[in-house]
């Protein structure tokens, strides 16, 4: 016999059996509705379990992972006017960023099963620090940028200077920028466009 005391079943006809136990009498429609709700709950449970397994796998296999504030820009094409000064525009969005294998993955949340975006490390041409960002309501955020050969520029920031330093160090190592001109040049396009 199915015990329904765990459910909040308002409006259902409760009665007592001959042996004094409470029971509920359901119509076929009500029974089918409960079965449907149970199936939905089982599906949600399976989805949450898959999300947790995915997060566990990502964190075990990732070189580096964590939340960063991200905004993207495109490098101007030759002959295009320079971009407008948008330093006052607050379009920084929190993203869960994962450095894994030959890619950087950008997830909306750490529990997402698929990334919103990704970039191959082989496509990165510059990595460099950006000036810190100070907002009245948020304090100071430290920043860096990643520029791809396609001209896509990821600007990344965090309240933690240590987190930014970890990302810069890991990316420079994985992209083999240690000691190269792109990583050491203080006038790279990451600095020029900020």
TrEMBL record:
Residues 24-58 form a coiled coil. It holds the Pfam family PH. Keywords: Coiled coil. The keyword RNA-binding does not apply. Residues 61-176 form the PH domain. The keyword Coiled coil applies. InterPro entries: PH-like_dom_sf, PH_domain. This is PH domain-containing protein.
């Amino acid at each position: 016999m199915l015990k329904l005391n765990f459910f909040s079943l308002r409006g259902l006809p409760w009665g007592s059996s001959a042996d004094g136990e409470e029971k509920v009498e359901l119509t076929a429609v009500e029974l089918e509705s409960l079965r449907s709700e149970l199936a939905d709950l089982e599906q949600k449970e399976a989805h949450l379990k898959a999300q947790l397994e995915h997060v566990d796998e990502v964190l075990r296999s990732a070189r580096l992972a964590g939340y960063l504030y991200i905004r993207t820009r495109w490098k101007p094409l030759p002959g295009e006017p320079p971009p407008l000064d948008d330093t006052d525009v607050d379009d920084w969005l929190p993203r869960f960023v994962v450095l894994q294998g030959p890619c950087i993955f950008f997830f909306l949340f750490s529990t997402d099963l698929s990334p919103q975006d990704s970039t191959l490390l082989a496509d990165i041409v510059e990595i460099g620090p950006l000036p810190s960002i100070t907002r009245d309501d948020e304090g100071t955020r430290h920043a860096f940028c990643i520029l791809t050969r396609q001209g896509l520029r990821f600007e990344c920031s965090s309240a933690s200077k240590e987190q930014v330093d970890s990302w810069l160090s890991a990316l420079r190592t994985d992209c083999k920028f240690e000691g190269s001109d792109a990583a050491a040049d203080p006038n790279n396009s990451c600095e020029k466009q900020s």
